[in-house]
Amino acid sequence: MPRARRETQFWESALMNNATYIQYYNRLMELSIAMFDWKNVPDGIDVRFLELVLFSDGKAIFFRDEEVEKYLGLQFTYNGQLDMYHIPTGRRAFAINGYNRQLSTDDSVIIWNNLLHTPSKLDVEMMSKRLYNFDRIIDVNVNAQKTPVLLQCDDTQRLTMKNLYKEFDGNQPFIFGTKALDVNGLKVLKTDAPYVADDIYELKTKYWNEALTYLGISNVNNIKKERLISDEVTRNMGGVIASRYSRLEARRTACEQINKMFGLDMWVDFREDYREADDVMMLLSETEKNDNLEDDVIVKPMVEDVLSDLKEGKDV
To answer: Which of 45, 72, 85, 164 is the most exposed place for a label (fewest CB within 10 A)?
Structure first.
C-alpha cells in the first residue's frame, strides 16, 4: 500500500478516535455540571459558569464587589499562607477579561467541588477514554464482518481488484467483471474475524453505568431476566446515593458560610432525579412479568414507598 494511502487511513482513524473521545467527554461533563439545583442565587452569579469552574478547577470563590455592586463567583488562585486546616487565607479572583481582585477569609468564601478539594475533570477524562475505546473496538469489529477477506493477486490486476473492492465496500448488489479478469490468479484468504461487538457493547454499558454512578445519577446496572428483590434494588442504588454525598456536602457547607458572611439565603440540592422513579417502575414491571414468584420480599411495596416520597418532595 502506498505511503500516502497509509498516512491518510491513519489520520482518518485518529480523527475518529479523537471525535469519539470528545463526544463522551462532553456528554459526561454536561451531566456533571447539571447535577445541582442552586436556590436563591443573587444576581451576578452565573451558576453554569460556577459549576464549570468547580468541574475543571475543583474550587471557586464567592464574594461581593462593592464597585460593581454585585456578588461574583469566579476562578481564583492561592495567594498567601494556608491556615491550620490547609485553607488558603489569601485568594486572588480573576476572570478572562482581565478582572482580578485580592481577597481574604474576611470577605470571601471558597466553594469546593468535593471534600477532597479536587476537580471532577480527571475522573471524566479517564471514563471517557475507556468508553471511546469500547466504541472504536465495536466499529472495527462490525466492519470486519463486512470485509473478512484478504485478496491476493498479480500487480497487473491490483487496480482491477481495488475497483471491485470499492463496489463491494459500497454495498453494490452486483459486481461485474470483464473477460480479461483472471480469476485463476486470484486468491481469497478469509480472516474469519469473530463477532464480539455485542459483548463489548455490554461491557461498555457497564462502564457507562459506572460513570453515571460516579456522577450520582440513578441507573440500573444489574438487570436480570428474573425479578429483582428489594434488597438487590437497594444495593444497586447505594453506590449512586453515596456518590452524591461528597460534592453535595461541599457545596452546602459553602452555602452556610456564604449565608453567615453576607446575610443571604442560598442553598443547593441535588437536582430531582426522575430516573429514580422510572427505574423503580421498570423493576416492578420486570417483577410482574415473571410468573415464578417466590415467597421472599419483592420490590412492589418499596415502589409504593418511593413514589409516595417523591410526591411529598422527600429525598429518595
So the answer is: 85
- CATH numbers and ranges of domains, the chain: 149-190 (3.30.1350.20), 199-311 (no CATH)
Buried/exposed code over 30-66 (b: 16+ C-beta within 10 A; e: otherwise): eebbebbebeebbeebeeeebbbbbbbebbbbbbbbe
Strand ranges inside 156-262, DSSP E = 187-190
Q: Write phi, then psi, for 109 (nearest 5 degrees).
A: -130, 135
CB 151 within 8 A of CB 161: yes
The pLDDT tens digits for 218-262 are 876 655 545 555 555 556 677 788 888 999 999 999 999 999 999
Residue with cell 444576581: 43
The pTM of this model reads 0.73
Give me the pLDDT at residue 193, please: 78
Query: How far apart are alpha carbons 265 and 42 in whole angstroms?
Result: 9
Q: Indicate the DSSP class of residue 38.
A: E
Q: Look at residue 101 and give its three-state secondary structure.
A: strand
63: phi then psi, degrees, rounded to nearest 5 = -160, 175
φ, ψ for residue 189, nearest 5 deg: -110, 120
The set of cell numbers assigned to 252 is 452546602
Contacts of 183 (CB under 8 A, 6+ apart): 177
- State the residue for C-alpha cell 457493547: 201
> Is residue 120 predicted with pLDDT exceeding 80?
yes
Q: What share of the chain is helix, strand, coil (3-state, %, to 5)?
A: 50, 15, 30
Tell me the residue type at 192. D
Orientation angle between helical segments 197-215 and 3-33, nearest 10 degrees: 40
Length of the chain: 316
**Grid cell listed for 103:** 481577597
| 282: pLDDT strictly greater than 50 | yes
> Are 227 and 284 spatial neighbours (Cβ–Cβ below 8 Å)?
no
Q: Quick one: residue 181, left, alpha or beta (phi over 0 = left, psi -120 to 50 = alpha)?
A: beta
Structure letter (DSSP) for residue 268: E
